[in-house]
Amino acid sequence: MEVHHHPHVPKKLKEFFLEFLMIFLAVTLGFFAEGFREHQVEKSREKEFMESMVKEMKSDSAQIREVFQDTIRISKMDSLSVLLLSNAHSPNFIKKIYYLNFKYTRTYEGMVFNRNTLTQLKNAGNM
Questions:
Q1: Which DSSP string corresponds to the chain?
Q2: What is the average pLDDT across 17-46?
Q3: How far apart are alpha carbons 80 and 114 in whole angstroms?
Q4: What's the CA gap between 107 and 76, in Å, rounded?
Q5: Nearest partner of 59 among 119, 108, 116, judged by Cα
Q6: How far does CA 48 lie from the centroid of its chain?
Q7: How far, CA to CA in Å, does 6 sit from each of 12, 14, 18, 97?
Q8: For 29, how many CA atoms within 13 A lie in the half-sphere containing its CB?
Q9: Region 19-33: what's the mean pLDDT?
Q10: What is the distance between the alpha carbons of residues 59 and 74, in angstroms, rounded to a whole number?
């Protein structure tokens, strides 16, 4: 919308004050609106990070349970190493070696913690 002022009519002090007040209010409200919007975005991002961290912790907890199960495997691997170092070679003895080897050494995995969310938080400066 265009406003045409007549060039021969000077503005009064009241008009200058009202224009200043309108511009000041517009800038101030824009500042507050931007602050509110940024707060909402940060709140949303925080919620996403927390959900991601909970998923990673659940995954790590499941992996820890598997590692605790590996302690049983490790004790059986000790039995296997004792059998391998012995000098007896009867057929039953060899069957036991194959059984222990097949059951307890083929699925061993170490613990690897998931740190994706923590790395993301550090890199973004949100830690």
A1: ------TTSPPPHHHHHHHHHHHHHHHHHHHHHHHHHHHHHHHHHHHHHHHHHHHHHHHHHHHHHHHHHHHHHHHHHHHHHHHHHS----HHHHHHHHHHHHHHTTT--------HHHHHHHHHT--
A2: 94
A3: 32
A4: 13
A5: 116
A6: 8
A7: 13, 17, 18, 105
A8: 6
A9: 96
A10: 22
Fill in the amino acid letter for 39. H
Per-residue pLDDT reduced to its tens digit, 82-101: 777 777 777 888 888 777 77
Residue 21 is encoded by which pair of tokens? Answer: 């007040």
Q: CB-based burial of residue 120 (10 Å sphere; 0-12 exposed, 13-18 middle, 19+ buried)?
A: middle
